[in-house]
Structures are given as structure tokens and as C-alpha cells.
Specification:
Distance between the termini: 37 Å
Number of strands: 23
Number of domains: 4
Helix content: 40-55%
Number of helices: 20
Length: 795
């Protein structure tokens, strides 16, 4: 261990690049983990006054959404409410109901992000508690209490959009919190099923005892959650934002992890190669290969530890900046506060040390094979060619990358992007391993036209590249990664920007699409104004089996298409039918949102079609059991007239609809690609600068010889700049080439998926910026470090 620490202290400049790479990687991972931890579901403000929430049983194989709990019917909830209301310490048990409600003013809906769940029964106001500021509680079906911030005076008339459409209500009171509060009877008609019962405690009640008593009343009919467990009932729109944010930061963390390993491995292999003579001396005095391997891995662990400590500090400092970026992209849950817990820092540190050790594994194996005779050889003469292990690893990575690129063309839509990224990662590794094969021939080819003028510069550049291809390859490796990721990510965005709108427009060609505009869905009033066309009504239902079994969650579509609108029947997709073990003609018991059980007959099992749905029933059946459900986009055929007279709707033709649908996600995709490109190019700058510093240190004797032969500092620096530019050009070319197979596979897959002709598209601006960025990073770094080396040696 003493030797390891001494080596790190004495050779700190050689380890600087690896240290900075680990620092940046750990900082990014720390930041993403802190954001992830801070964005965990929080208890809604409207549940602040509750001691606990009583929830129904959860369906199997679900993702934890509150919609995946099987609701109680009114008949099932009534005895539970009566029993829970008598629990000692409970001031009241409230059936919490949430449904769509949105004020309409000045001809349009009032912007309200939480409109989908803004309507409640008056009893729900007790849970916050929200108190009356003016007026009284609602008692009739045409009365409502609203947030005082809405500006509606007590006694005034207010138009509120609900599932049926626009209705007039009398404002009978205002409260000091958000939402629209109707009479409990009206709320029960809007949402008959009960998904949660809130327990409002007496002042000073013992929460633990209250929860225990509530569980005894509930028995095996559900769960009782208290404290942070109440965060389970996070609104769907907030959970969606959290999901998008997690996807963005996860992609950043994965790329930074891969790039850190790649850069650290490249730098440590180069650093170990520069120490062959030193390692040979250690072997001469009796050091065993295992001891040499432990020494290299120990140095990497120390670098990883130091980089992790600094990276954690930098990551915590950078977290507000990332939160601001994500907030600008609207993927941060409202009111999220950044909190720094211990586990993100510990996890990032463990990853940092592990990444550093993993990156050093190849260098450690290489060092363990150094023979004692190396102590008598010149370090610069070592490692000119390709070893057998490098050939095998490079060709294996190349073959795997090609297979993954082919897989990109045939993979499903959800996996296509990930497959393309993994294919590119693999091909980048292959290109980095096989670069020494190309450096010499390419150097000869590119310098040949300049050798006729009698200048010594091209001769020196060619000689250096031919004599030390692996040293040149270590400089090209980070360039391959930076340019490769920049081209891949920008190419994916450009290709999808063309493919998806074209494919979607083809699917809905000739139709007019009625979409929500400022509302979370289309109301029945909008559907009535567009009586012809597809108007799918989605709901969440559950397939029930034996009483002892949990229910299976279903996404059900109610259709008015005559082919599927069959009372008492259901049409299933093949995958759903297989999952449920159903065949045509069988009966299936289904429990709907109101808690009612309905037995349906499977009328048909058809090939899966996202446009149709996997479990389709009559629209009237869905509306009867889920009065709060909102209709999806309405597709009106060419020979019918679409209407946008109802406020909160908009009309689109096929092209505009497809483009608008894509642009919803395109902004996030563009932002993600931009952030990942910055990360990749930033790592390249670190690696290039460090590689140039180590290469210049290894060439100090070369500079002395060339200076003695009459070379001036200016000429030597020009040679160095030319050599660096040539290597960067080779790395950039390889970086572009390794992305073409995955992008071509993606284009082929999109062609099949969208039934349109999709070609590969590259973003010329991003490609140019990536190449010039790495070139502008490498050439100045080469000039600076080589000039310093010459001054130190008196060249």
C-alpha cells in the first residue's frame, strides 16, 4: 500500500486525466441520484391533515400507481366507512373522490395542470384541511365551492367543465386551497367507486394506535398507509413528469458511466505502457505478476477514491443547475425541493471506485505480463503493434456490434433506441481496440502528397505514426467516443424527426383529428358534437378470478365502432388473451372503476393493433361504470365534418396532428441529445489533454534528438500540431463510421414500423461541431504540453 500511495504522489500528473474523468463521472452520477431521490413521490398538500389512508387491494403485476388498486363499490365501502368512523382517535372517515373539473372563463378553460383530478366531494376538503374563507358548504348538485384564488365571488355563476361537458354551478363558498368541491352526493355520481378512505384524526390522537385499529377493521380487504406512505396517491400528471425526468437523468448516468470506464481504461493503459521499464525493474527485484497487478489496481482504487470524494462535492454543488435545466423542460414534479441524503453520495462513490478499478483491469493485466528484461529496454520501443489479445477483443467487439446493429433493424419500437446505443458503444470499443491497425496505413496515405516538397515534417509525422501506432491510438480513442456519440444521438433525433410524423400521418391520412386544447381529454359534449368517427373512451378495469386471487389490471377501451360496440362482449388482442389464458367464446369476469363486477363474453381474439386496443368493449358500458372517464382524440373521417365549437378543443389534419404528437416528445429528445453530446465531448477534451501530456513526456528524448539535428521549436511544434490533427481526423472518421450501421438499422426498423420510406439522416451542424470541438481541444493541448516539455529539457 505504501508503494501505491508513493506512486500516486510521485506520478500525479500521469494520473490527472483519470482523476478528472472519475471526478466528472461521479459528479454526474451524484447529481442524478440526488435529483432522483429528491423527486420521490411526496404527500400531497390535500392529505396533510390526515393520519392515514385506507386503500383497496392492489392488482398483481402493477407499477405502483394508485389506479392499479381495485376500487370498492359503494356497497363495499359503506360498512368500511362506518367501522372506520368509530375507530378511537378518528374525527371522521372520508371517502376521497377525485375527478375532472375545470372552470371555463372568457370562452376557454382555465389553465390548471391538475384539472384531471381537481374535482372532489366536500368531505375531501377536511383532509388538508382547507377551510371556508367565505360562504358555506355545497349541498345541492348545482353548487360548488372553489379556491379563492380563482376570483369567483360567492353567489356568482361559474361554468365548470366536467366529464359531461360545460355545466353552470352557483359558487356558494370559497376555500384557502386548490380544487373544485361539490356536494358529496354529486361527487359520488361522478366517481362511484372508492379508491381511498382518509382518516382525519382528533387533535392529539395517537397515530400508531389509530392505524392499528384501522387495520383490524379493514382486515384483508386492503392496506392502511400513514406517514410518507400517503405519497402513493400522487396524481398521474406528477408521476408522468417524474417518469420523464428519471428517463433523462438515467440516460445521462449510463452514458457518463460508460464514457468514464472507456476514458479511464484508455488513459491507464497508456500510463502503464509508459512505465514498462519501471515495472521491469520491480520484476527484476522479485515482484510477482500478482503483486504488479495489485499495485496497478490499488493505484486505480486510490484515484477512484480521490475522484469520488471530489466528484460528490462537485455533484452536490451542480444539483441546483441540473434541477433548473429539468425544470425548464417541465419534467420536475411541482414544488420539488432538493435534499441531499447519504445514499446517493455513498452509491456514487462506490461506483466511482468500481469504475476506476474496472477501467484499470486491462492495464493491470498488461503490466502483470511485463518481463524483467523490460528493465533493460527503452520504454519507447515497447507496444508498437497489436497483441493477440487486442486482436481477439477488437474483432469480438466488432462482431457483437454488427449483430447489435442488425438487431436494431428488427427490434420493437421501445427497444430500438437502446439497441442502437448499445451497438454504438460496442463498435466504439471495437474501433478503439483496432485503431493501431489503421493509424500507420492512413498516416502513409495522408502524408504522401506532402513529401515531394522536401519538407521533413510529413516524414516525421509518418514515422511517428508508423513507429508508435498504439500511442496514437490512445489519443484517437476519446475522439472516437466523442464524435461517435455526437453523430449517433443527433442522427437518431434527425431520423426520428422525419420518420415518426410521416408514419403517423400515413396512419390517419384523410381524417380530421379533434384533440384537447387546454383540457386533459375530450368531454361527452365534444363527442356529441362529433357524432361520426373513432372516439375511444379509456378506463382502468380488472379481471377477477377466484376470490382468493388478486385481480389483473387492464387498460380497457370503450368503442363506438360498430365492429366492436357489442353489449356484453369484448374483443381482445392476441397478447392480452394469452396473458389472461382466454379464448374466443369464453366468459371473463371484469371489475370496473365503480367496483361493479360484469361478466363479458370474448367475441373475438384478433392480432395486436395499438390503434384498436387490447381489450375493447362497448363505449356505453365504459361510460356506465366510469362516469369520470374522458375521451381520447377523436378521428373524424374525410366525408364527415369535424367540430371545434366546444371550448377546449382543436382540429388538426393528418400532417399537423402527427407533427404535434411528435413535437411533444421531440423537445425532450433534442434536449437529452444535446446534454449527452456535451458530456461525450467534455470527456474527450479531458482525455485528449491528458493523453497529449503523457505522450509528450514519453517523447522528450525524441525532441532532444530532433533539436540537435537542427529542428527549431517552431518546426517541432508544427509537426506536433500536424500529427495531432491527423490522429484526430482518423478518430473522427472512425467515430462517424461506427455510428452508420446502428443508424442504418434504426432507419430500416422505422421504415417497417411506419410503413414509409425512411432513410438515414445526419445533423451536419452537430457532426461539424463535434469534430471541430475535439480538434480545437487536441491541437492547443498538444502545443502547450509539447512546448512545456521542450522548455524543461532545454530543447
Amino acid at each position: 500500500m505504501m508503494l501505491v500511495l508513493a506512486n500516486v504522489r510521485a506520478r500525479w500528473s500521469g494520473f490527472l486525466g483519470a482523476f478528472v474523468a472519475v471526478l466528472v463521472g461521479v459528479a454526474l452520477i451524484t447529481t442524478t441520484l440526488v435529483i432522483y431521490d429528491s423527486a420521490r413521490p411526496d404527500v400531497q398538500a390535500r392529505y396533510a391533515g390526515t393520519a392515514a389512508l385506507v386503500l383497496p387491494e392492489r392488482a398483481v403485476d402493477t407499477d405502483g400507481s394508485p389506479e392499479d388498486r381495485v376500487p370498492w363499490s359503494r356497497a363495499e365501502a359503506a360498512p368500511l366507512l362506518a367501522g372506520l368512523d368509530k375507530v378511537p382517535g378518528v374525527a371522521g372517515a372520508v371517502a376521497d373522490r377525485s375527478f375532472y373539473a375545470q372552470a371555463v372563463k372568457d370562452g376557454g378553460p382555465v389553465t390548471d395542470e391538475g384539472a384531471l383530478e381537481s374535482g372532489h366531494g366536500w368531505g375531501s376538503a377536511r383532509m388538508a384541511p382547507y377551510r371556508l374563507v367565505a360562504g358555506r358548504a355545497p349541498s345541492r348538485a348545482d353548487e360548488v365551492v372553489v379556491d379563492r384564488a380563482l376570483g369567483a365571488a360567492v353567489g356568482s355563476e361559474l361554468t365548470v367543465n366536467i366529464t359531461k361537458g360545460r355545466e353552470r354551478f352557483t359558487v356558494v363558498g370559497t376555500v384557502d386551497g386548490p380544487g373544485y368541491y361539490f356536494s358529496d352526493a354529486f361527487a359520488a355520481r361522478q366517481q362511484p367507486g372508492v379508491r381511498a378512505i382518509a382518516l382525519v384524526p382528533d387533535q392529539g390522537a395517537d397515530t400508531g394506535a389509530l392505524v392499528s385499529a384501522a387495520r383490524r377493521v379493514l382486515g384483508d380487504k386492503g392496506d392502511v398507509v400513514s406517514g410518507d406512505g400517503r405519497a402513493e396517491l400522487q396524481p398521474q400528471h406528477i408521476e408522468h413528469k417524474r417518469f420523464l425526468g428519471v428517463q433523462l437523468i438515467s440516460a445521462m448516468a449510463v452514458l457518463s458511466l460508460f464514457t468514464t470506464v472507456f476514458v479511464v481504461a484508455s488513459l491507464l493503459v497508456l500510463a502503464t505502457g509508459m512505465r514498462r521499464r519501471e515495472i521491469g525493474l520491480l520484476r527484476t527485484i522479485g515482484a510477482a505478476p500478482a503483486q504488479i497487478r495489485r499495485m496497478i489496481l490499488g493505484e486505480a482504487a486510490v484515484i477512484g477514491l480521490l475522484g469520488s470524494i471530489a466528484g460528490c462535492a462537485a455533484g452536490v454543488a451542480a444539483t441546483p443547475l441540473l434541477r433548473s435545466v429539468l425544470d425548464g423542460l417541465e419534467v420536475v414534479p411541482p414544488g420539488m425541493k432538493v435534499t441531499v441524503a447519504a445514499w446517493p453520495l455513498l452509491t456514487a462513490s462506490v461506483i466511482g471506485i468500481g469504475v476506476s478499478v474496472a477501467g484499470a483491469w486491462a492495464a493491470a493485466r498488461k503490466a502483470a505480463r511485463v518481463a524483467p528484461i523490460e528493465a533493460l529496454l527503452d520504454t519507447r520501443s515497447v507496444g508498437k503493434g497489436m497483441g493477440r489479445g487486442r486482436w481477439i477483443a477488437g474483432l469480438a467487439a466488432l462482431g457483437l456490434g454488427v449483430l447489435l446493429a442488425v438487431g436494431t433493424a428488427v427490434s420493437h419500437a421501445d427497444g430500438r433506441i437502446n439497441m442502437a446505443i448499445f451497438a454504438t458503444m460496442t463498435l466504439i470499443v471495437a474501433a478503439a481496440l483496432l485503431t493501431p491497425v489503421f493509424i500507420g496505413p492512413v498516416g502513409r496515405f495522408l502524408t504522401a502528397p506532402f513529401q515531394r516538397g522536401g519538407s521533413a515534417g510529413p516524414v516525421l509525422i509518418r514515422a511517428e505514426l508508423v513507429a508508435h501506432p498504439r500511442r496514437a491510438a490512445s489519443l484517437a480513442a476519446p475522439v472516437i467516443a466523442a464524435v461517435g456519440f455526437a453523430v449517433l444521438l443527433s442522427g437518431m433525433v434527425e431520423t426520428m424527426r422525419v420518420a415518426y410524423p410521416a408514419g403517423e400521418a400515413l396512419k390517419v391520412s384523410g381524417q380530421t383529428i379533434v384533440t384537447p386544447d387546454g383540457t386533459p381529454g375530450n368531454t361527452d359534449e365534444v363527442v356529441a358534437a362529433n357524432p361520426v368517427g373513432k372516439a375511444a373512451l379509456p378506463t382502468r378495469a380488472f379481471v377477477t378470478g377466484d376470490a382468493a386471487e388478486q385481480a389483473t389490471v387492464l387498460d380497457v377501451l370503450g368503442s363506438r365502432d360498430p365492429r366492436w360496440d357489442r353489449p356484453g362482449e369484448a374483443v381482445l388482442g392476441e397478447r392480452t388473451a394469452a396473458d389472461l389464458g382466454l379464448r374466443k367464446g369464453q366468459d371473463v369476469p371484469v371489475r370496473f372503476a365503480d367496483g361493479a363486477r360484469v361478466t363479458l363474453r370474448v367475441a373475438a381474439v384478433l392480432p395486436d393493433d395499438p390503434a384498436r386496443g387490447d381489450f375493447v368493449v362497448a363505449r356505453d358500458l365504459v361510460r356506465a361504470h366510469d362516469p369520470a372517464a374522458l375521451t381520447d382524440d377523436i378521428f373524424v373521417p374525410r366525408d364527415a365534418e369535424a367540430s371545434d365549437e366546444v371550448p377546449g378543443t382543436a382540429l388538426h389534419d393528418a400532417a399537423a396532428y402527427a407533427l404535434a404528437d411528435y413535437e411533444t416528445d421531440a423537445r425532450l429528445t433534442d434536449s437529452l441529445a444535446a446534454m449527452l453530446i456535451v458530456i461525450a465531448v467534455g470527456y474527450s477534451v479531458i482525455a485528449v489533454a491528458n493523453s497529449m501530456a503523457m505522450a509528450a513526456h514519453g517523447r522528450r528524448r525524441d525532441f532532444e534528438v530532433m533539436r540537435s539535428a537542427g529542428g527549431t521549436v517552431r518546426k517541432l511544434l508544427l509537426c506536433s500540431a500536424g500529427e495531432t490533427a491527423l490522429v484526430v481526423a482518423v478518430g473522427a472518421a472512425l467515430g462517424i463510421l461506427v455510428t452508420l450501421p446502428p443508424l442504418a438499422g434504426m432507419a430500416s426498423g422505422l421504415s417497417q414500423a411506419t410503413a414509409s420510406d425512411v432513410s438515414l439522416h445526419l445533423n451536419a451542424g452537430v457532426v461539424t461541431a463535434a469534430v471541430l470541438g475535439t480538434l480545437l481541444a487536441a491541437v492547443p493541448a498538444a502545443l502547450v504540453v509539447n512546448a512545456r516539455t521542450m522548455r524543461r529539457r532545454g530543447a
